[in-house]
Design goal:
By secondary structure, the protein is α/β, with parallel strands linked by helices. It has a domain of about 100 residues: GMP Synthetase, Chain A, domain 3. Helices cover about 25% and strands about 25% of the residues. It has twelve helices and 26 strands. The strands form five sheets. A nine-stranded mixed β-sheet has the order 2-1-10-9-11-12-13-14-15, with helices on both faces. Strands 6-5-3-4-7-8 form a six-stranded mixed β-sheet, with helices on both faces. The longest helix is centred in the first third of the chain and has 17 residues. The radius of gyration is 22 Å and the shape is globular. It starts with 10 loop residues before the first helix and ends in a 13-residue tail after the last strand.
Length: about 500
């Protein structure tokens, strides 16, 4: 069954995008069979010839398995070369690539397969077993993708206006939302990224966000578009990240400010006064002044960007110091603010609805996409984000639904998730448990949540025993921002990252 757009732009908007030239560019970029470096994931390094071979092999496997342009393919993607090849292969095959981070949980797979009905899955053996993929569809292995000789299948007829990619975001509900993009919408988001950052074939990009995220997709598309190299950081740590940046001559980093902050701090720790970086693209949170200062000290151009899975790479601005806003709207992007104060965005880069049509309710205002952020419009088409309407935590640039955590924690008793500031990750996910019957234990909470199907990357980092009733509105809704009041904390247990010598328990 072919996945179709559930909320494409109106015929009027689509006609304007096409007339303005946003939807009239050439088709997907052809991968050159050259010795130019393409991918490095810490395990192997591929040239564009290697990548082309891997893409052709996977396409051949898809054809042999009976996958057509009417089908969707689930790609369970780690930060590995093979995952990039799998994503590109599905697109070039003309099928829909349904992207899932390999750290997801079984409940994610169950929910996604129920709606997407993939013809088959591409996944590593361990991920396939852990997630029980064979219960939902046949599985083809990701690894061994770079065969020396393969027969390249005939080119597929790819409709640039049809659904091509689905990425998932937690949003504000307990069920992950599948965000549908077309070749055309991704092409426009990619063009915005390439132009705003001045990307060329001489660049090397650094990706620490999942391939299955919109950040990952745009970086893959941008690298292929200009023939740049992409470095994939599967296991992120200050030391390993810096070593990859230094060894590969990484010139561009994109993602949450904490990534750049980590690189700069490690450079300072090693006593260095220069880096191969020329540009950092930062979004997802207010950028600390220290990051901007460090960037200029190392001769790196900091660029602030704003976007989401639904409206990727909508704004950008080069930072010379403190920025009072989140950048100017990029070409083709239009923005307005509703009477409620919510930022609305439209443009040729916007998504074409959610995989589950029910999730479209409240997501649009006519041709406008509702962002869930409060904002002000400033002269020069500039946008300043002033707050959030949606109940999410943004940790290292990744959005986590507070409602999803609440739902997974229901067996622990009366619980409520909330956000706390964190110097390392931007925000920390915390879970308040009201008057627990037994002493809190992080391993017990962790095991309960993962058994409920919660992905490991969504686990809270701080468990709080809450004394008394939760603060609530007149309608009974928990006031999550009030949960940060430490005076009501009876005990605290931290995840290993935050644990001290005593194991992190505070009584």
């Amino acid at each position: 069954m072919r996945i179709t757009a559930t909320h494409p732009p109106s015929p009027r908007a689509a006609a304007w995008f096409r007339a303005a030239g946003h939807w009239t560019a050439a088709g997907p970029a052809d991968l050159s069979a050259s010795s130019r470096p393409a991918l490095a994931d810490g395990v192997s390094e591929w040239t564009y010839a290697d990548l082309e071979s891997a893409v052709a092999r996977i396409r051949l496997a898809l054809s042999t398995s009976g996958v057509t342009t009417e089908d969707s393919v689930l790609v369970v993607a780690p930060l590995r070369n093979e995952a990039v090849a799998a994503y590109l292969a599905v697109l070039r095959h003309g099928s829909v690539a349904v992207l899932l981070d390999h750290r997801s949980g079984r409940s994610d797979v169950q929910n996604i397969c129920a709606v997407a009905a993939p013809r088959l899955a591409l996944a590593g053996t361990e991920d396939a077993d852990r997630l029980g993929l064979n219960a939902f569809c046949p599985v083809l292995p990701l690894h061994g993708a770079a065969a020396d000789t393969v027969t390249t299948p005939d080119p597929a007829a790819v409709d640039p206006d049809a659904a091509a990619v689905v990425v998932f975001t937690s949003g504000t509900t307990s069920t992950p939302k599948g965000v549908i993009h077309t070749v055309n919408s991704l092409r426009c988001g990619t063009a915005n990224m390439v132009d705003a950052l001045g990307l060329t074939g001489d660049d090397t990009l650094f990706l620490a966000s999942p391939v299955a995220s919109i950040t990952g997709v745009l970086q893959v598309e941008s690298a292929v578009r200009v023939g740049a190299r992409l470095v994939l950081a599967e296991h992120f740590s200050p030391e390993s990240a810096f070593d990859q940046v230094w060894a590969h001559g990484v010139s561009v980093i994109g993602g949450a400010p904490v990534i750049a902050e980590t690189i700069f701090a490690e450079a300072d720790r090693r006593g260095l006064d220069m880096l191969p970086l020329r540009c950092i693209a930062l979004g997802g949170a207010m950028i600390p002044a220290s990051v901007i200062e460090s960037a200029h000290r190392f001769g790196v151009r900091p660029v602030r960007v704003y976007g989401s899975s639904e409206v990727p790479f909508s704004t950008s601005t080069a930072l010379s110091g403190y920025s009072p806003d989140d950048g100017a709207a990029l070409p083709g992007v239009d923005a307005t603010v509703a009477d409620s104060g919510e930022l609305l965005i439209s443009g040729p880069h916007q998504f074409h609805g959610y995989l589950d049509p029910a999730h479209n309710d409240g997501a649009f205002d006519g041709d406008w996409v509702r962002t869930g952020d409060r904002a002000e419009l400033l002269p020069g088409r500039r946008i300043r984000i002033t707050g959030r309407l949606k109940e999410i935590v943004i940790r290292k640039g990744m959005k986590i639904s507070l409602a999803e955590i609440d739902s997974a924690a229901v067996e622990l008793g009366d619980c409520a998730a909330f956000a706390l500031p964190d110097d390392e990750t931007g925000e920390r996910l915390a879970l308040a448990v009201r008057e627990p019957a037994a002493p809190l234990s992080y391993p017990v909470v962790r095991d309960r949540l993962t058994a409920a199907g919660l992905a490991t990357w969504k686990l809270p980092e701080q468990i709080v025993a809450w004394a008394g009733e939760f603060p609530r509105t007149a309608s009974g809704k928990v006031v999550r921002r009030a949960l940060a009041d430490e005076s009501r904390w009876a005990a605290v247990v931290y995840a290993p990252r935050l644990s001290g010598p005593s194991g992190g328990r505070v009584v």
